[in-house]
Every structure is written in structure tokens, then in C-alpha cells.
Amino acid sequence: MEPDAAIERRHEPDDDPTWEEVWDLDFWTADASVGGYIRLALRPALGRATYWACLVGDDRPLVSVIEAEAPIPRPPTLEFRTSGLWADIIPQVPFSHMTVGLEAFGLAFDDPAEVLGRGWGDREALGFDLEWEDEAAPHLPSRDGSGHQSVARVHGEILVGRDGIDFDGWGTRRHRWGPSDPSADEIVAAGRLDDGTWVHLAAGSDGATGYVGDPSVRVEPAPSAQRTADDLFGGARVRLGDLYLAAEPVHHAPAVDDVTAGRALARRALVRWSTGDGRVGVGWMEDRSGA
């Protein structure tokens, strides 16, 4: 049975003050030379949205846009403007085609650890005109029972400073809504192996789930991530059913989430996957914790 197209659209919040609705979109090239992500979180009880975007790559600094006080987009769209930032996420065809637009000034960091520290970087323009073309039916529901995730081919144009990048690669997109604890510990990862197999996992205090290809699989034991001396993502070992995975960071792109409950650190990194049976791949992994 086809999923209800309404799932792709915005949802009405309930009375829970922790209710939020989040869109996460990741992208990368097969050789991990370029990658990035977008996150939009709507928090109606706080009267604001949080927006993150970044670009990483070989021989280039991390460029991040982290906006903690974005206006909540006017329904039913996800478009908003603020000082030095225009962004939009458009579900063109439910569970098939999504586009992302961004025109912003962010900060460039030679040392990604600066994002978690003083946050000092050089002003840099960042723009996305990207499309996610889903490769398969969505996985429903997400770990907490309210949401979905899809795997996709990603293509389009990226502008960073004066440079343009014609992007063609892979990505994932996730959409979830409901009560949350933004400062809770959580590990989320998604990627694609070189034989075309997609992998995904999500783990938190309420358990862990994942998949390899289409079937759902057990994540046992719950994964734990290493951290570097400067508190960046340092790698992880994961078991998804019968598949053993190792994730090693290639490019770091952390972010800081200032929420009512406290300050959460999202240690995100573009990673290379290696498996116990000899396959390799690329994807994104996030080790999130309250601080």
C-alpha cells in the first residue's frame, strides 16, 4: 500500500511544549570528496525554528550556516528569510522528489572544533540548488513511530564563495515530528555501500533500530561513538543484524543546538564505512549529546 502523501507535509503541533518537526537532508559523493547536510527544526512552543547547513570537502574548509533564531515558516511552506539567509525545502512529489534552496552567508572554519568552541570563522557565501530523487520506497515509521526516511540520488549546483560545484552524488532525507528532548544523547547514521546497499541506524535511550537494504534489522548491542581530544566524532563500530560496520571520519561538520533544555552538541561527520565482509561506503554519522 502506498504511504499517505500527507505524511510529507507539515503537521499540526500538539500541546506538548517539547513538540518539534524536523527535516534532515544529507548528501555526499561516492569518493567522499564533497558532502553536506541541511537540518530544519520547527519548535512552535519556542516560537522559532533552527536551521543548519554545511559543506565539507577535500582541500576546503568547513562552511557552516547555523541559525538558532530563524522564524517559523508560514504554513504550508518551509520557506523563510532572515538576515543574510534565505532557505526553502519543497516536497515536489511525495516520496519521490524534493528540492532544497539556500542563499546564505555562513562561516568558514579551518578547524571544525571551533564550531563547538568560540565559533570564530571567516564570513563565506554558501548556496544550494539541490534535488533529492528517491531511489526506493520510504522506510516507515522512524524509530519513535512518527516519521519516515528515504534514500536518494542527489544532484544540482552548489555555490561556495566564488566557486561553483556541479554536484552529483547520493543522499538521504528524514522527516519526523512529535515530542522530543533535543538535548538527549542519540546516534544516527546513514550511508551507501559500494555495491548499492543502503544502511541506516538510529539509537537513543529508548532503544535502537536500523536497516540494511530494505529489511529492518536489529542493532545489537546499541552503538557507541568515540570522540577525539577536541570533542569531535572519532569513529564508531556498529552491528546491524549480521553486518559489522566501522565508521571513520573523513570531514567533520559539528553544530551546536541551543534549546530550552540546555545546549546540545551534534558531532556530525562525513564518514567512510567498512564492513566485516570487505565492502566500503560513504555516509553521514551524528553523535549527539547534551552539554
Walkthrough of the structure:
The chain is mainly beta and about 290 residues long. Helix content is about 0%, strand content about 65%. Strands 11, 12, 13, 14, 15, 16, 17, 18, 19 and 20 form a ten-stranded antiparallel beta sheet that branches. The chain has an eight-stranded antiparallel barrel with strand order 1-2-3-4-7-8-9-10. A hairpin with a 4-residue loop joins strand 19 (about 260-275) and strand 20 (about 280-290). The protein starts with 19 loop residues before the first strand and ends with a strand.
List keywords for this structure.
single chain, 291 residues, mainly beta, 20 strands, globular
SSE map:
Layout: E1 20-28, E2 34-43, E3 48-57, E4 62-70, E5 80-82, E6 85-93, E7 97-109, E8 122-134, E9 147-160, E10 163-178, E11 186-193, E12 198-204, E13 207-212, E14 216-218, E15 224-227, E16 233-240, E17 243-252, E18 255-259, E19 262-275, E20 280-290
Antiparallel strand pairs: 1-2, 1-10, 2-3, 3-4, 4-7, 5-6, 6-7, 7-8, 8-9, 9-10, 11-12, 11-20, 12-13, 13-14, 15-16, 16-17, 17-19, 18-19, 19-20
